[in-house]
Amino acid sequence: MNTKAVDFRPGVMSCNAGRETVPASPAPSAPRLRLEAPLSRGTLLDGGWWPRSADPAAELPGLIAAIEDRRGRVTRLMLGPAGWDSQPRRLGAAGRVIKVGWFPGQPTGLLTAFCGSSGRVDLLVVPPGTAEADAWAAMDRAAQAANHIHAPDIPAAVAGHPGPAADTEPGLAVWESEGGQLAGRAEAW
Fold first, then answer.
1. Domain for residue 170, yes or no?
2. Dihedral (CA of 117, 72, 141, 105) sign
3. Total structural domains in the chain?
4. Could you give phi then psi for residue 75, rounded to 5 degrees?
5. Which of 37, 44, 34, 39 has the alpha carbon at shortest distance from 153?
6. pLDDT at 188
7. Which of 84, 62, 65, 69 lies closest to 15, judged by CA?
8. Within-domain flag for 163
9. Backbone φ, ψ for residue 63 (5° rounding)
10. d(C-alpha 10, C-alpha 49), whole Å
């Protein structure tokens, strides 16, 4: 019988491997996240997330808080292990322990958050080292209801996609990021 205690205090992350307890980040950072309003389940993705590092203890608590603000209580996360520094099985976040499943079969760049009775949230995960313009373009694309590109293919689809020129009309960049599009740029998507 295992008598080793596991620490379930908020802000503490417990790794299943060896039952080690690793402290989570003291104050989660605000995530770089694009999350659209809940739509029909006919969409491939609900949005995109661009973590600042590959450290799940530092990155996931802020993401969980942001998802809970918009979609309800997160009960479990599902990710692929590729690209992460570690794979904790339990994460202290939002005042409780969240179970995290790491599945090699999960598509690269896809995070699924299960949210109690409100369903699930599927997010594109943009690698931390991605160029800023490409990262925002990928997250914007993932958050579009009309997107038909799967998570692993989005970064390549938007790589090098030019943003609006700096000398364009005021507000044009905002207009484009909210779904508008310059004439002649539609074929780039």
1. no
2. negative
3. 1
4. -105, -25
5. 44
6. 39
7. 84
8. no
9. -65, -45
10. 23
Its domain, for residue 86, covers: 12-158
Note the pLDDT tens digit of each residue in 24-76: 556 677 899 999 877 556 678 999 999 999 999 999 999 999 999 988 899 99
Backbone angles phi, psi at 73, to 5 degrees: -60, 125
Q: Is residue 65 part of a domain?
A: yes
CA distance 84 to 103: 12
pTM of the model: 0.71
**Which pLDDT score, from 0 to 100, does residue 8 have?**
35
The Cα 68–Cα 60 span in angstroms is 12
The answer to whether residues 157 and 149 touch, using CB atoms and an 8 Å cutoff, is yes
pLDDT at 117: 74
125-153 pLDDT per residue, tens: 999 999 999 999 999 999 998 888 999 99
The answer to whether residues 77 and 94 touch, using CB atoms and an 8 Å cutoff, is no
- Provide the pLDDT for residue 88: 95
Q: Side-chain half-sphere of 98: how many Cα atoms within 13 Å?
A: 30
CB 67 within 8 A of CB 141: no
Nearest of 49, 52, 32, 41 to residue 128 by alpha carbon: 52
